[in-house]
Specification:
The protein has eight helices and seven strands; from the N terminus they run E-H-E-H-E-H-E-H-E-H-E-H-H-H-E. It has 256 residues and is an alpha/beta fold. Helix 2 (49-57) links the parallel strand 2 and strand 3 (62-66). The N and C termini lie far apart (39 Å). The structure holds NADP nicotinamide-adenine-dinucleotide phosphate (NAP). GO terms for molecular function: 2-dehydro-3-deoxy-D-gluconate 5-dehydrogenase activity.
């Protein structure tokens, strides 16, 4: 390694990115590819043409794995398929996530379980499966979980989302404690308010949009590209001594 910038390079690395079809997942997959990684993207959808194209434009390979992360039985296939395509796995980005909005007083078991299953339960078992793969192949690995402002704040009308994202922050610390000694770095990124399908309803509500924008010190919604620096950093050797931390990429939202 010649210098600090080389420590950020991901040449020869393989990243599994869940929810890579669109939004923040696509943005992070493309950033990882630009840094040198091949990408195994996971999504509901049968294919992810825009992500595949952008990864190819970076000179890297993209393999798509269709899977419903509401169920755990897809996890062995995700790891096996990524391994079959690329021969190793070095990075896991747990990005796929959903949100259900309803008053806490009316919130249903279905709304609770649907969010917890995708946002927290599958994330834990994917972390476990990836860590087993890292240990099998040797050389450690990097896990980056996608948290939220609601890992730090309570939010409103999103009880299962807040529970899941607060859980992500805690789980990230627990896994770091158990696996740091095995050369596996587990960290998280907490995006602020980002312009994706996930926030389309908020941005479409003129009053909520103005309230949110007025509270963001940077004065704009974030973009998928805004996560590129943090995800490449945490996936790289430059972050080898960072364990269990949740980095906010939020235009200053939490500083208010
Ligand atoms: P998005 O645009 O709604 O995209 C969600 C992604 O997750 C899609 O690729 C989707 O795949 C995938 N996904 C959802 N449920 C799935 C399932 N059951 N099985 C497989 N894939 C599934 O969301 P986003 O805004 O990019 O959010 C990505 C992550 O960032 C989420 O964890 C979210 O909670 C978090 N986050 C977002 C914001 C924000 O402001 N946008 C802020 C903080 C945290 P398909 O396209 O195939 O359905």
């Amino acid at each position: 390694m010649n210098g600090i910038l080389d420590a950020f390079k991901l040449d020869g690395k393989v990243a599994v990115v869940t929810g890579a079809t669109r939004g923040l997942g696509r943005g992070m997959a493309v950033a990882l590819a630009q840094a040198g990684a091949d990408i195994a993207g996971v999504g509901h959808a049968a294919e992810a043409p825009e992500t595949a194209q952008a990864v190819a434009a970076s000179g890297r390979r993209y393999a798509h794995i269709q899977a419903d992360l509401a169920k755990l039985d897809v996890i062995p296939r995700i790891i096996d398929t990524a391994f079959e395509h690329f021969g190793r796995i070095d990075i896991l980005v747990n990005n796929a996530g959903i949100i259900k909005r309803n008053d806490a007083i009316d919130f249903t078991e279905q709304e609770w379980d649907a969010v917890m299953d995708v946002n927290l339960k599958s994330v834990f078992f994917l972390c476990q499966a990836a860590a087993r793969q890292f240990i099998r192949q040797g050389g450690g690995g990097k896990i980056i979980n996608i948290a939220s402002m609601l890992s730090f704040q309570g939010g409103i009308r999103v009880p299962s989302y807040t529970a899941s994202k607060s859980g992500i922050k805690g789980l990230t610390m627990l896994l770091a404690n158990e696996w740091a000694g095995r050369g596996i770095n587990v960290n998280a990124i907490a995006p602020g308010y980002m312009a994706t399908d996930n926030t389309a309803a908020l941005r479409g509500d003129a009053q909520r949009n103005a309230e949110i924008l007025g509270r963001i010190p940077a004065g704009r919604w974030g973009t998928p590209e805004d996560l590129g620096g943090a995800v490449v950093f945490l996936a790289s050797a430059a972050a080898d001594y960072i364990n269990g931390y949740t980095i906010a990429v939020d235009g200053g939202w939490l500083a208010r």
